[in-house]
Design brief:
The chain contains 2 helices and 2 strands. It is α+β, with helices and mostly antiparallel strands. It has one domain (about 1-70). A hairpin with a 2-residue loop joins strand 1 (about 15-40) and strand 2 (about 40-70). The radius of gyration is 15 Å and the shape is elongated. The termini are far apart. Mean pLDDT is about 85; it is low at about 85-95.
């Protein structure tokens, strides 16, 4: 993927999750392990997990990468002991 190669050259760090498994039957979950690369070298490990409920049935595997393009983004990852991608409903929050 040319776009990913281009982004990785300019990124301060890249967090890669090569395989995330997601499965569910009304109630579902997902889990995957990842590696944080800084300067092309392994700098740490991470994992992702989540749960969901609603109309769903089946299983899938996928991967993703997150490109930290500046030190502020990388610092936010470190300070918050990770981050969460996605959106969900907040009770009473309308979102």
């Amino acid at each position: 993927m040319p776009a990913a190669k281009s982004l990785s050259r300019d990124a301060v760090a890249v967090l890669v999750f090569p395989k995330i498994t997601k499965a569910g039957l009304v109630v579902g979950g997902q889990y995957g392990d990842g590696v944080l690369f800084k300067g092309g070298k392994k700098a740490g490990y991470s994992n992702t997990s989540g749960a969901s409920c609603g109309f769903q049935a089946g299983a899938q595997q996928y991967g993703y990468a997150t490109f930290m393009m500046n030190a502020k983004a990388l610092n936010a990852l470190d300070e918050n002991e990770g981050f969460e991608v996605g959106a969900g409903h907040q009770p009473g929050g309308g979102g």
